[in-house]
Task: inverse folding
């Protein structure tokens, strides 16, 4: 799918915010932020990045593709793990520098650590945070992993960087 | 709130992914991505950025603060518009470079254009995208603005950049 055909040039703020054509803004690294939620539960599953090629692939195929910043490579979500994300709705924000994917998960999980969502830990705030003596303690919202990443991603490098 | 107290040092991948302490990763610009959803509807309202100071302020006050990249300034959401976001749950992702705020909206809207959510337009994909002759057409999911930005943000510069 030809990105010069499907993406419009960004000409004016009004066109971008109140217009009717897709005119995404890619940052200095050529990336746009992609937020992915579960279409059934509304849960935030992950936040990833897309370049123009990968956004076009997602639009073309209806399956989520991302650009891995740690591997600097195109990434068809689920190609290794089988945990494919079928796009059910795709939306773009006011200034068109962020897309929202509402997806159906196959395999029941999205996170490379093995949890359903990447957001499996709560951060305290307000009075609870004031009372903490040192670094803020995280509370797990998921206690059981959906899959064992040692098996699913055997031999693959961990994408998390310090 | 002292960021050197509430944030732990990032020592190992295991500590970051499977540990119990908050150890956020700020990027080369000192920012972490913040995804904000409506705690009642689950709708994605906006995606913003936070630096260490602003994340600590959000944790301390229980109200969403962001860092405006276009204005390079701290931004207490709702200070101008009255559309404050009360944090009801705060979560962090596996590699701790993204936070998820589940908020209660005052004023019924979040987007500076006047809509409830910043994500008020759908992008076609699959067969519908293949059939489009030129730039992909966007379809509005919200048809009525909640407020008039010309009144609420009178005299303020528009944050959208081309």
Result:
């Amino acid at each position: 799918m030809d990105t010069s055909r499907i993406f419009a040039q960004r000409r004016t703020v009004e066109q971008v915010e109140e217009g009717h054509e897709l005119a995404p803004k890619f940052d200095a690294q050529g990336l746009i932020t992609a937020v992915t939620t579960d279409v059934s539960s509304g849960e935030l599953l992950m936040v990833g990045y897309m370049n123009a090629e990968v956004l076009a692939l997602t639009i073309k195929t209806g399956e989520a593709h991302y650009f891995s910043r740690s591997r600097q490579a195109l990434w068809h979500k689920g190609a290794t793990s089988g945990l494919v994300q079928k796009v059910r709705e795709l939306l773009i924000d006011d200034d068109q520098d962020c897309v929202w994917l509402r997806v159906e998960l196959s395999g029941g999980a999205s996170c490379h650590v093995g949890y359903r969502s990447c957001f499996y830990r709560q951060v305290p705030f307000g009075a609870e945070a004031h009372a903490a003596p040192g670094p803020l303690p995280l509370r797990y919202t998921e206690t059981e992993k959906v899959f064992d990443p040692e098996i699913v991603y055997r031999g693959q490098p961990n994408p998390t960087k310090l």
Chain A touches chain B through 70 residues (CB under 8 Å). The longest helix of chain A spans residues 52-61. Chain A has a mean pLDDT of 93.
